[in-house]
Amino acid sequence: MNTKRALTALTIFEAAQPYVFWLLVMFPAMNLDEDGIFLDAIPWVSTCWVIVTLIAGGVYVWLSRDCAFRTIARNAMIIKLVHIPYYLLVFALAVVSVVFSLKIPFITLTVWAFCFVFDATLIVSSGLYELAAVIAGVRCKRMTGGQGVVFAIAGFLFCVDVVIAVVTYVKSREVVIVGARPGSSPSEPVGRRY
Question: What global pTM score does this model have?
């Protein structure tokens, strides 16, 4: 499998993984688990899922080292935008858990802890994809080292990460003229365009 296909597969996996996880956990728990066996396995399944997700993000960073900045930035932006409905779903679940906590004690704390763990995992794993984009941006000199550090850190912050992903993608689309003479206007390029 070539690198471009592997990066595409990892991007699709990361974009779909929160939704797949919820289907993986919720469908059997609601429909197939009469004996409670699957419910007992949820912590183990969840731990394995978190580990696989983080390993996939690390592999993506490693494989993307020779790829185009625009491609990597686009992938990171798509992932961050596709995850927005998941975060809205988690927020709605947290609100519903508050209502149910009036009838079932401690459900709010349990639901919030579960949601926090997977939100944090999702921020870290999708942040790795943004980190790959920032590294590519610094490597091709579209970002300074200082910008790269700020963008890399912001890529792991809730809500800010989406804005940073969009800004990084916009930076990847900027036309850079290399070798322009000082004082020449951008309409008169001398060097090559990237």
Answer: 0.79
